[in-house]
Amino acid sequence: MQAEHVRELLWMFVERIVSEVFPKESGASRLQQVGLFTLIYLMQRDPPVTAARIAAFTQQSESQIHRQLKKLLTLKLINRKKIPGPHGRGRAFELLIGNTKETARLVKAIEKSAGGKRKG
Predict the structure, then answer these.
(1) Range of the domain at 101
(2) Is 80 helix (H, G, I), strand (E, B) or coil?
(3) Is the four-CA dihedral 49, 55, 58, 59 of positive or negative sign?
(4) Which of 48, 54, 88, 100 has most Cβ atoms within 10 angstroms of its Cβ?
(5) Domain for residue 77, yes or no?
């Protein structure tokens, strides 16, 4: 059955990331980090990933998203890049997957779990 295949794929995806990348964190912390990192990874298309875009998608306040992002920024799993703000005014920060040994392991785990092959 298709639904069972999707369930198995998602389980492999989450289990591998949690056990290989964030093994020493608390369960709640790992869940937040894995979820937020994965969301940023999946949303990296056009338009750019921003805290406001994540907040709108998850129906959380931007302040809640910013608090959750601090851990990923501290661990250098994600980076922020200044971009023009919406409507051409002000500045916003695009969230990007960091280029570190840890993020390479995490992206590899995501892609391996999804059955994808790393490009580039």
Answers:
(1) 2-113
(2) strand
(3) negative
(4) 54
(5) yes
Q: Which residues pair with 80 in a beta bridge?
A: 95
Asked if residue 119 belongs to a domain, the reply is no
Q: Give the global pTM.
A: 0.68
- What is the four-CA torsion angle of 10, 28, 22, 65, rounded to 10 degrees? 90
Amino acid at 78: I
- CATH code for the domain in which residue 97 is found: 1.10.10.10
Cα 14 from Cα 1, distance rounded (Å): 21
In a domain, 120, yes or no: no
Rounded CA separation 86/10 (Å): 34
Q: How far apart are CA 99 and CA 42, in angstroms?
A: 16
Instruction: Please tell me the total count of domains within the chain.
Output: 1
How many separate helices (H) and strands (E) can be counted in the chain?
5, 2
Q: Is 99 helix (H, G, I), strand (E, B) or coil?
A: coil
Q: Which strand (E) or helix (H) includes residue 54?
A: helix 51-58
pLDDT tens column, 10-24: 676 567 666 766 667
Q: Does some domain include residue 118?
A: no
Dist. CA 70–CA 77, nearest whole Å: 10
